[in-house]
Structure formats: structure tokens, C-alpha cells
Amino acid sequence: MKATGVRRLVHMSALKAAPDAVAMIIAKGSDVNARNNAGDAPLHIAVRQGLRPQGEGLLLAKADIFASNVRGDSPLSLALTAAGGPIEWLFTSQTMASRDANGDAPLLGFAPVRKEG
Predict the structure, then answer these.
(1) Which candidate among 2, 50, 95, 104 keeps its CA 20 to 30 Å from the CA of 111?
(2) pTM over 0.70
């Protein structure tokens, strides 16, 4: 199967709310961080659409919470700025221990800045 076909399967599984399909496709060797034309990885879709079971499966498969799409949104930023409040299932011990390419912790860029004085 071509990489584009696998990429489509992973994204369609995230969109169609099929947690078992996501796990099966990942087990067959597809790229958990594959991107669509908008630069979204399956985890972007799961976070945006509130698909917790699929998102948790993607996280277990080591989906990148820092991956930015063409708009500059990462699954992490989408989870932190969701309209209904932060999407808590994204914040596991595994994701909190992860670091971005600069070695920064997930919440570093989102921590409020305290003004002195």
C-alpha cells in the first residue's frame, strides 16, 4: 500500500471514530504522525473533534503533541485553547514528560507570565 493510502486510512479512522481501526492501522506500521493537506496529523483531528478513545490510542503510539499544522496549531495548543476548556485527556504523564525540539516542557509556552512589581 502506498504511503498516501496509509495516511488516508489513519486520518479516516480518526475522523470516523473507529478506535479499533486506529490501533490496527498503527500496528500494521503506518505513521502515527502522517499529515494531510492541512498539515494535520490524526491527533489534531482527534483533539479538535473530541475523540478521546482515538486520541488516547494515538498517544500510546507516541503521536507528537508538538507537531504544527499549516496554521501553526499543534494538538497541544488545540487542547489548551479548546472552546469548552482544556481537553484533559491529552495531559498524561507521558505527554507531560515529553519535550519539544528545543527541550521545552509542554506547558512552557502556555504558562502565564507573572509581572514583577
Answers:
(1) 50
(2) yes
Mean pLDDT of 56-70: 91
Which tens digit of pLDDT belongs to each residue from 29-47?
888 898 988 899 989 999 9
**Cell 512552557 found at:** 108
The CA angle 53-59-60, to the nearest 5 degrees, is: 90
Beta-carbon contacts of 78 under 8 Å, excluding residues fewer than 6 positions away, are 44, 47, 48, 87
Q: How far is CA 94 from CA 38, 45, 111, in A?
A: 26, 20, 19
- What's the fold here for domain 3-110? 1.25.40
Is the pLDDT score of 53 beyond 80?
yes
Sequence ranges of the domains in the chain: 3-110
What's the CA gap between 63 and 2, in Å, rounded? 21
For the beta carbon of residue 3, count every other beta carbon within 10 angstroms. Answer: 10
Q: Write the pLDDT tens digit of every residue in 83-96.
A: 888 888 988 888 88
CB-CB contact of 58 with 36 (8 Å): no
Note whether 101 and 66 are within 8 A (CB). Answer: yes
